[in-house]
């Protein structure tokens, strides 16, 4: 059965708010998988990431959550197709917060006036010439003899040399220096222990050019062992007890196995040859082959992962496997020889990958580089993790080109550069052509500069706040002159948490105005108490009648059908003394119950008298509605209905209710006429934008992760 990629993020209530860092986790893992230190996001899970066809991020420039709910009915496709919705906090530098520092996204003007950008896979020639690998080996591909260490390089890097004072008694492999580009390569690696003599070999491995193991032998040290270094070597005292092989035996076997023109390959091979007390003239040292400026060297583990895509020296294993290390060093040398310096520098971009490695390892107290020599590795001074790497650049390793289409590009500092000559229609047409060719695409649409003026945004905010307040408000009455207000509050309180309750005295008979904290409570009051007898009077329950509320019933119906609310029901009438554990136990008999969310006052932390229940199946939610209505729990009668507000919307409504919305309200009135004139046109623009997203979405391949972002203006 073919596995398909899917995203699981069944969050409800307070879990519907995520940070920029969490979104960064999602996009990074979706783009890279487990390569380059990318891990599953901490807050959701992508199943079968390898089956992911691509990632498309649609950015609605300078639009926010405010626009989404102001034009909720116009975003018909967006709200019906995208099943997961989360609130993000604002960011001062939105692109950097999502993709990381140093994004190499540089705008190029296209004939259509678009800003079309790709992460360049080939470094500029001037940068190429400055790279230490290019300076050492040149840009052209050469044979293996060009990468073997010269006599001077061997002396400089502490290799055992014939006739050197420190090499007295060392055994020569008796191989000559008549090597050619077709000479055979052999990978060599040793594990050492610490003895009274210094570093002595405890295990040695040799592999041939095909990676086949020719030698993998334990060696008994001559001197008293001070430390077996089991954590790194994997060798224990018990393992060496039955061993009879000595260093001299290994030296003899190596001399017999190596042909006269053999080239030994290893990572910091000088340490291995010193421990073996052997001299060999033809060597390739992969720690020097890939070395950076000022003699800095990459760890073998890092190179194996970044270059070969292999995991070695895994923490689950006890110590290093010398055969695995010898094979990795051999394959690194073969890769370098076959691909050439230019491709290694330009396409692998190891410096950038190292930055990712360092930042990941700082948190785990590991080092991303190693100094010269392998005996006692020292931690380098790590820079503080002030920034996170741009994971888009990591795609270069696999030859992928991230695509940016929109009215603005990003330079290397993350600053915007505008190009307002392109229309959303032009951007869409280019996206339909280019997105299928890219693994990671960022498509940016905009309403245009005329719709992002501060007074228009402020006016929109006031209209949305006012409409939400009206939707949360109900009027009930008429009541008798001396009605019991306490009874009214108790009855309407069974529908959900009340924000405020006031008596309306301007009418012939008294009415009450009740503002709820959640939309479901107000709707439940209208549905269940209209025409009911409350406090001795048969009352009518209705919402305020204003121009903005004429489409309230349509909006309520669409909210109820929102994919975010599928399988979610609202339950009111709970006693505040009940805890989440109590409710879990009480509702445990309901079939397919997946999640329970108990809202609380965001200031006091106290629970409200309502909760939300999410079910795995819509039918189970409908069955639960029938079962719960009229259900008595701890002496309190429960009321229930389908949910209207997703978790992020509930938090937003609460924040609006508890902010002083009336302050400075008079400022908006003089702008309202101008806003009304432009808002009709704005509705058409938003509706068109929704259609663009629909066309783009329908053109995507199966198993594509699509994210739509409303980054806001701050």
TrEMBL record:
Record Gene3D superfamilies: 3.30.70.330, Ribonuclease H-like superfamily/Ribonuclease H (3.30.420.10)
GO molecular function: exonuclease activity; RNA binding
Record's keyword annotation contains Hydrolase: yes
SMART domains in the cross-refs: EXOIII (SM00479), RRM (SM00360)
Location of the RRM domain: 472-546, 567-645
InterPro entries: Nucleotide-bd_a/b_plait_sf, RBD_domain_sf, REX1-like_exo, REXO1/3/4-like, Ribonucl_H, RNaseH-like_sf, RNaseH_sf, RRM_dom
Alphabetic keyword roster: Exonuclease, Hydrolase, Nuclease, RNA-binding
Gene Ontology CC terms, in alphabetical order: nucleus
Protein known as: REXO5 exonuclease
Annotated source species: Chaetorhynchus papuensis (pygmy drongo)
